[in-house]
Amino acid sequence: NKYLKSAVLVSAVLFFSLTNGCDAFESFPINIPFTITFTATGNNSPISGGPETGCIDSQSETYQEYKDKINSLTFVEAAYRTLSVSSGNQNMSGNINVTIKIPGGSTLFSYTISNVKPADYISTPFVLQLNESELNAIRNYLQLFETTTMCFEATYTLSNITGGTTPYTVVGAVDFVLEAETEL
């Protein structure tokens, strides 16, 4: 009796996994990374860079490889990193603001990292923790991927600068990771 119950249970699980589980083998998720870089320079605080535009169809080899098989795009995360600071500015600090917009359109998010040294993010990126309304704005935009070229516009500002020497120059980047659900 005990074995009969086990056999029935195993048979039911096997039947349902074979008849309902095929979707798992018909699609798979892939990560699509891309980066927008910018340079901010000046002799006075604040310094700004951008707007610079990045488009996943032209800047992501992964997207290009799978674009005809993509069913949906999902935002995974964005991070800020500093690529370089000008000579004598390793100890320069201030407030970093990164604003991401739809080119020629609305702001998706604006994120400020307060009282930091840009040089601290040369080896360790800062993952941007977005709120629910910012995440929803990105989700809504990504739903248009079939009819719109997915581009993002980045603007960078370093304000309340202390330390360092002029001219101040920061070369930075915003890294994005999107997940694409694709067909096999």
Describe this structure in words.
By secondary structure, the chain is of the alpha+beta class. 24% of the residues lie in helices and 49% in strands. The protein is built from five helices and eight strands; from the N terminus they run ααββααββββαββ. The protein has a four-stranded antiparallel sheet with strand order 1-8-3-6. Strands 2-7-4-5 form a four-stranded antiparallel sheet.
Rg calc = 23 Å
Terminal Cα separation, in Å?
A: 43 Å
In terms of per-residue confidence, which ranges show pLDDT below 50 for 5 or more consecutive residues? 1-23
Largest β sheet strand count, sense and barrel closure: 4 strands, antiparallel
Number of helical regions: 5
The general outline is elongated
Q: Structural class of the helix and strand makeup?
A: alpha+beta
In what order do the strands lie side by side in the largest sheet?
1-8-3-6
Q: What is the H-and-E element order? A: HHEEHHEEEEHEE
Helicity, as a percent range: 10-25%
- What's the total number of strands? 8
* Mean pLDDT over all positions: 86
Structure characteristics:
184 residues; alpha+beta; 4-stranded antiparallel β-sheet; 8 strands; 49% strand; elongated
Short description:
With 184 residues, this protein is an alpha+beta fold. It has helices at 2-20, 23-26, 56-59, 61-66, 132-142, and strands at residues 27-42, 47-55, 70-85, 93-101, 107-116, 126-127, 151-162, 168-183.
List the helices and strands and how they pair.
Blueprint: H1 2-20, H2 23-26, E1 27-42, E2 47-55, H3 56-59, H4 61-66, E3 70-85, E4 93-101, E5 107-116, E6 126-127, H5 132-142, E7 151-162, E8 168-183
Antiparallel strand pairs: 1-8, 2-7, 3-6, 3-8, 4-5, 4-7
